[in-house]
Design a protein that fits this description.
Layout (H helix, E strand, L loop, with lengths): L1 E4 L7 H10 L3 E4 L12 H6 L5 H14 L6 H22 L6 E5 L4 H12 L3 E7 L5 E5 L13 H5 L34 E4 L6 H6 L6 H13 L5 E4 L9 H7 L5 E3 L5 H7 L2 E4 L3 H8 L3 E4 L12 E2 L3 H8 L9 H15 L1 E2 L5 H9 L3
Helix pairs in contact: 3-4, 3-5, 4-5
């Protein structure tokens, strides 16, 4: 069996090298610049079968979320179509149609969407991979990652799930892009507060799975409205990987008595000391469940399951949930079952690779 790693970091090379030794599987890293290109009529044959619409639309969303530049849509559409068409030609000429599987990291980048369509037209199976959800684990899924993953959404499934193993309680710290932004502001935390972690504006979690809050500035405006309708204190923290500058929001927050940024505290400390967590669909929401916290979800999240979290689809629902937090009794058994299923059955260990689980995943879909 040969599996091609399309967009998997060399940081994970050791993991796949170990798997290769344990299993009868050969892993190849795809690098099209190193591939020998052979002209093929497939360029014309497959062109009418590959849909560029989703990739182009995602490219435009990503560009607009990351850059503060206004460019007419028809220009962006033309530019990104041509860019992706060039990728399409390269992939048709360099992807290997004899592979058994392709593994994609995340799989939601515009170029991934093109490559995935091509390999599926060749009837090659696709696996999606990503870091985490819980400490020291990897996602490996045949359906997708994040909201599109294969984790059951049925409350009864987790009520009936049994597992006596222990869960971790030490989160993996994220290294900030800008250390200076996260060193300051270690002033005393409020005695009671709701923690709100910012996310990356141009991440697929926001671009694809956040219907009514399109970026962190909109999230701040929602919290601003919420602050006027609630006695709660809201503690915000910027995402360590974001390159956006929110100095204006810091200044504005100082004028509001119950909104404060606390970048200087670790995410784990803010989770543990908070009364509840309010997130669009961040991994912080899952991590917060480890500490038996009340989690309110504003976007589409696979952990938005009745009894595990609450979901607000607009500002009115959000105000109602926040103002009734004291009446919310969390179901600790249900949450623990959900987390144990993720940790021991769904996710794959990072340090010590579970080759048995990896092979079962591959063979189950053959």
């Amino acid at each position: 069996m040969i599996i091609e790693l399309f967009s998997v970091s060399y940081n994970h090379k050791k993991l796949f090298d170990n798997l290769s030794k344990e299993l009868d599987i050969k892993f190849e890293y795809y690098r099209y610049r190193r591939k020998k290109i052979k002209l093929s009529m497939d360029i014309f044959y497959f062109f009418r079968k590959v849909d560029f619409t989703e990739s182009v639309e995602y490219s435009i969303k990503f560009f607009e979320a990351r850059k503060n530049i206004k460019i007419p849509k028809f220009i962006l559409k033309t530019y990104f179509f041509l860019e992706l068409f060039e990728k399409y030609i390269r992939y048709i000429l360099t992807l290997d149609s004899t592979r058994d599987y392709y593994i994609f990291w995340n799989g939601k980048k515009p170029r991934h969407l093109i490559a995935i369509q091509i390999v599926k037209l060749w009837n090659i199976k696709v696996l999606y991979m990503e870091n985490g959800l819980l400490p020291h684990r990897l996602v490996l899924d045949l359906k997708g990652v994040n909201f599109e993953n294969s984790v059951p959404r049925n409350r009864e499934f987790f009520l009936n799930y049994k597992n006596n193993f222990e869960l971790p309680f030490e989160l993996t710290p994220r290294i900030p892009e800008n250390m200076n932004k996260f060193k300051k502001n270690r002033e005393e935390l409020p005695k009671k507060f709701i923690f709100i972690p910012f996310q990356v504006d141009y991440d697929s979690q926001i671009l694809l799975y956040s219907s009514w809050i399109e970026n962190m500035r909109k999230l701040f405006m929602v919290i601003k409205i919420l602050s006027k309708n609630s006695d709660s204190v809201f503690v915000l923290k910027e995402h360590p990987s974001s390159k956006k500058n929110y100095n204006d929001l810091h200044i504005e927050s100082k004028k509001i008595k119950n909104i404060v940024f606390m970048n200087g505290y670790s995410t784990q400390e803010l989770i543990e000391k908070s009364n509840a967590i309010l997130t669009i669909n961040s991994t912080v929401g899952i991590e917060s469940l480890l500490f038996k916290k009340k989690v309110v979800v504003l976007g589409q999240a696979f952990y938005s399951i009745n009894g595990i979290t609450k979901t607000a689809k607009d500002i009115n629902e959000l105000i109602e949930i926040v103002n009734n937090l004291d009446k919310w009794k969390i179901d600790e058994v249900l949450i623990e079952n959900f987390l144990k299923y993720l940790y021991y059955d769904y996710l794959i260990p990072l340090e010590k690779v579970s080759s048995i689980k990896f092979r079962e995943l591959l063979l189950s879909k053959n």
